[in-house]
Amino acid sequence: MDNEKLEVYENDIFLFEIIGIKDVLKFTPYEEEIEIIVFQTSTGIDFVKINTEKSMLGIFAERAWASRIYPEFEKEMQSLHHLKIKDTILPCDLVNFRNNETGEEKNIYFEISDFFGKF
Q1: What is the per-residue pLDDT across 28-57, written as a single tens digit (0 to 9) for each?
Q2: Does the reported pTM lie above 0.85?
Q3: Which of 26, 44, 101, 110 is deepest in the core (most CB within 10 A)?
Q4: 3-state DSSP of the chain
């Protein structure tokens, strides 16, 4: 993505705009490198792309990233969504987290097209 703002839709409803890349992280569980790209959005919602071709590693990466960035939050619910960016429909996990002490909620979209359905 070269400084192009991308609009994100679900069922033709505008959700947010991707403004740019916020961070790129790499880690190596089980001797395989996984790249995690964190995008900056117009609403502050976290949009995170997990680059791996193995479902179990992708799920592990989602949990590892969320627990590192939001250690005081606990996962409440997860659901599969299909978001449209440009003319591409992408599978995304929407994971809802809650801080049990403050009641604050956090929604994170994990873009999972690289590993979705691959076991």
Answers
A1: 877 888 999 999 999 989 999 999 999 999
A2: yes
A3: 110
A4: CCCCCEEEEECCEEEEEEEEEEEEEEECHHHCCEEEEEEEECCCCEEEEEECCCHHHHHHHHHHHHHHHCCCCEEEEEEEEEEEECCEEEEEEEEEEECCCCCCEEEEEEECCCCCCCC
In terms of Cβ atoms closer than 10 Å to its own Cβ (0-12, 13-18, 19+), residue 44 is exposed
Domain segments of the chain: what residues?
6-111
Q: What residue type is 50 in one-letter code?
A: I
